[in-house]
Amino acid sequence: MRVNVRNHSLKELGARWERYAEEHPGLRSRETAAVLGCSEAALVATGRGSRRVRRLEAGRTGMWLPLAAAEGRWMWLVRNDWAVLEKDVKELAWKGGELCFGDAATEVGLDPATVGKGLVLLTEPERGLPVSVQIFNACGEAVLKLYLRDHGAREAVLAKLEPFALEVEDAFRTCAEGTLGTKGGHPVRENETRIAGSLHRELIQFGCEEPLPLTLTVENSGARMRVTVKPKNLKPMETWFNILDRGFNLHLREAGLASTRVSRGVGGVLARIESGTGAEVLRMELPSAAWKVIEEAKAGRSPSGARGRS
Fold first, then answer.
1. Which of 108, 159, 180, 230 is least surrounded by CB atoms within 10 angstroms?
2. What is the C-alpha R_g of the chain?
3. Which of 131-140, 151-160, 295-304 has the lowest mean pLDDT?
4. pLDDT in tens, 35-62
């Protein structure tokens, strides 16, 4: 990845972001960072829209993250270049492993080396907006974001994070955003079949109609989130395919989805949605009955009961 490393004055960068945001309302920080030639971390550090931004000690994430996760309800967000997975969870428990959290339906894991070399920012917006903790890798790309949904827990969360909080320096070493390192590019395994085209719509629609839940995993170079859900509200929007359920969202950038690797075992069906470069975008674990959907897709027919692409 070619990067453009430079020093930014956060005050100057914040002013540039303010001007750009006025001309392009609704543009996300990640896309804005690419246009302005900086990292997403640098934009967040400017404090635009926040009363205060501080950094948390990245090397002590294993100490402060369990304390924060145990307070109130948070939205956990993991994304890669083609997928965004968001889940609201109350008091997600530390599982005892290194930077691994989970409950019966949600599991989040962080790579300690990526976190230790990166940057963690704590934002404290004005009242009424959620406190956030955003973890970035060494290039300033967000690998995990947490937004506090429970406003009543705000003061308790800030009190627990206070011993780990430091001021953000005005000179900020940053680089242009590159790739989040989606997993994949491996040869097809002996028990796998690669199918041209993405079957995400057919398989998620199957998940809506079946009584059993499905499990979805989104991973990047520094974090992984695995959730078991029963999807309900499917919403294609322009170039995105979305699941918009209460407390759970999945967003897929469909233009980049190129193939599906599938395998079948005793526990059910495993499907890996891939990009054009063979990177793994989304992993889906489904009941055994999903194999019929895959067989019909391989035969070139629209799966029974599933909606075709529009």
1. 159
2. 20
3. 295-304
4. 998 889 999 999 887 789 999 999 999 9
